[in-house]
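Notebook entry, structure prediction.
Reason for the run: the old model in the group folder had no record of what sequence produced it. Starting over properly, with the input documented here first.
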Amino acid sequence: MENRTLGVVMNGVTGRMGTRQHLVRSILAIREQGGVELADGSRVQLEPLLVGRNADKLEALAKTYDLSDWTIDVDGAIADDDYPIYFDAQLTNVREPALRKAMEAGRDIYTEKPTAESFEAALDLARLAKQTGVKNGVVHDKLFLPGFRKLRRLIDGGFFGEILSVRGEFGYWVFEGDWQAAQRPSWNYRAEDGGGIVSDMFCHWNYLLEDLFGTIDSVNAKAVTHIPTRWDEKGKQYAATADDAAYAIFEIGRTIVQFNSSWAVRVNREELVELQVDGTHGSAVAGLHRCRVQPRELTPKPVWNPDLVETTPFREQWHEIPDNEEFDNGFKVQWEQFIRHVVEGGPNPYDLLSGARGVRLAEAGLQSSAEGRRIELAELSL
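New structure, fully documented this time:
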């Protein structure tokens, strides 16, 4: 069996997510293990070319991880036949033209999301991928996290019976930046720079809910800016013009999903994102890592009595789902899946069309909030 090497242009990799999750914990980890194993037992090794706008940052990053190939010439990198895969982790407002240029050059593309600033632009990218015939993938990292994989296992095993409702909670308190530094970049809170929790997180909720429960039929959302003034990385005060919280109801057939997303909430749950799924035969609470269940046969019988102090240990009445396998980093797992798709040609549901559906949900959520009404979502195809 003959092993091979694939060159990967990595644009925007100097950012926190690009460096930690995509370069270090995915590409370099794959290189360390000897490449991506294919169905025939052979392996594909990856050779990254670091690309960005800041030469000093790129040079320092390459030196830190003993890499020799980096450039600020993105056009030259895309034109280089030694690197047939283009990956994009740039800011959203510069991502679409780069993806378009890469596909027009015949490069297979893998990208962070949102894939574009508007639904129409995201859909155009999916159409271009179909027209050019390039392989294409969008990061759907949360599908590969242990807690949601355990939840998927429960769904596939028929644990819930009919799934009635889902309640999602995501978020944490992001400091304003005056007396403690913020944990997120300031552009996240400026609409003019592409910020906002709806555009950021609804793309995630779309693929997560779609994969677990089915296609989203409608959305009714309220997006708000709870913290109107923040301080940036240099300590300068600025107006927060983007939404920092969103409260939404999604309909998936007969299943009702309530999902709260907020950067202005203090955490009173076990993980920063959790889904509670209630069905006729049982319920589950799943986070990034853990998943606990309460089947019908073990469901207690609470009685409402406001005159007595509640002493029932409700959280102790749930049962932990075991790992039953070793879970790898979610970003790395999807990188391996995409490389196999490129080399072996197998199916890949996590494509630009899926990415466009995520952008559409974000747009529909903002439209719903602005107009104060429920927005229906039609079936989407190219």
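Summary: The two ends are 38 Å apart (CA to CA).
The old model has been moved to the deprecated folder.
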